[in-house]
């Protein structure tokens, strides 16, 4: 990476291989890590030569001393694309866990293709006691299949570094309308209710003001809820599949500090334009 990162560094947008970049960041630096990796839709993924498969019996135990080599092998029997995808993603998840502060939280955003595998593997990697939530983001937009139930949700798996010390502020989260306001008092209806683990939120409209043109852009409302709940003003937020830069745009607006990483020059160009337009200050750099 370019200049060293410290807790006093400015917000950063970094172009480069994310595994190489994040390996240069210091331990326990971030209160929140949000990851929206490729969804393993069958398209080829870029693979890194590093492959991390740890086993307690091999003398190199995973987090919490958990052996997961057998679990990982068993799961591969069910999906012949699983090995390629997780050989790419698994070492990045291990780095993300290293970078989380003791009160930190990891949000892994996937869809139906990988969420069930991810849950089992993350339990093995980090410990079932670190699992906090499975969030379902449900939306209703675009074409709908008539040959099966239309798939209109994503899954966000939430894990905390320390189950006894993680930061979560439900009062900071924007409230939402009651679905049956007549069943609560007028005061409660006016205030709204705290969100549950099922989030009804539209996708980014192709013609809306929020649209950047980036194909997998995630809505501000989804990231706003995550960042409000699991970080404080001044805390550091990391997103190393930065895409359209929604994480940085929301973090900047909420007074958080951030590091965004992406290997795509097109992505970094979108992020640069978006953050500049929003008046969010940052330093742009590239990994050597």
Report on this model:
- This protein is α/β, with parallel strands linked by helices.
- The protein has a single domain (12-286), classed as Vaccinia Virus protein VP39 (Rossmann fold).
- 29% of the residues lie in helices and 19% in strands.
- The protein contains eight helices and nine strands.
- It has helices spanning 18-23, 69-76, 82-99, 115-126, 186-191, 220-230, 246-253, 265-278; strands spanning 12-15, 30-35, 100-110, 131-138, 153-160, 198-200, 236-239, 257-262, 283-286.
- Strands 6-4-5-3-2-7-8-1-9 form a nine-stranded mixed beta sheet, with helices on both faces.
Entry summary:
The chain has 288 residues and is an alpha/beta fold.
CATH fold title: Rossmann fold
Q: Main beta sheet, described?
A: 9 strands, mixed
Going by helix content, strand content and strand pairing, the class is alpha/beta
Tell me the Rg in angstroms.
19 Å
- What is the average of the pLDDT values? 85
Strand adjacency order, main sheet: 6-4-5-3-2-7-8-1-9
Q: How far apart lie the N and C ends?
A: 6 Å
């Amino acid at each position: 990476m370019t200049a060293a990162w410290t807790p006093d560094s400015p917000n950063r947008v970094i172009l480069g291989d994310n595994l190489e970049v994040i390996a240069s960041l210091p331990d326990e630096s971030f209160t929140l890590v949000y990851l929206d990796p490729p969804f393993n839709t069958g398209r080829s993924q870029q693979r890194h030569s590093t492959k991390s498969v740890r086993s307690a019996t091999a003398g190199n135990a995973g987090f919490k001393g958990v052996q997961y080599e057998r679990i990982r092998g068993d799961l591969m029997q069910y999906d012949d694309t699983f090995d390629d995808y997780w050989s790419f993603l698994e070492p990045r998840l291990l780095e993300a866990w290293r970078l989380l502060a003791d009160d930190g939280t990891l949000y892994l955003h996937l869809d139906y293709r990988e969420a069930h595998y991810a849950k089992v593997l993350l339990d093995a990697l980090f410990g079932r006691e670190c699992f906090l939530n499975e969030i379902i983001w449900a939306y209703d937009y675009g074409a709908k299949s008539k040959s099966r139930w239309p798939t209109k949700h994503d899954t966000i798996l939430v894990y905390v570094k320390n189950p006894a010390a993680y930061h979560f502020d439900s009062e900071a989260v924007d409230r939402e309308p009651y679905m049956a306001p007549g069943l609560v008092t007028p005061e409660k209806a006016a205030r709204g209710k705290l969100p549950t683990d099922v989030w009804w939120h539209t996708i980014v409209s192709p013609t809306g003001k929020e649209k950047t043109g980036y194909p997998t852009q995630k809505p501000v409302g989804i990231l706003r809820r995550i960042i409000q709940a699991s970080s404080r003003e001044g805390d550091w937020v990391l997103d190393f599949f930065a895409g359209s830069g929604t994480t940085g745009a929301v973090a900047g607006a909420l007074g958080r500090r951030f590091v965004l990483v992406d290997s795509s020059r097109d992505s970094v160009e979108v992020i640069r334009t978006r953050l500049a337009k929003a008046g969010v200050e940052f330093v742009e750099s590239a990994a050597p």
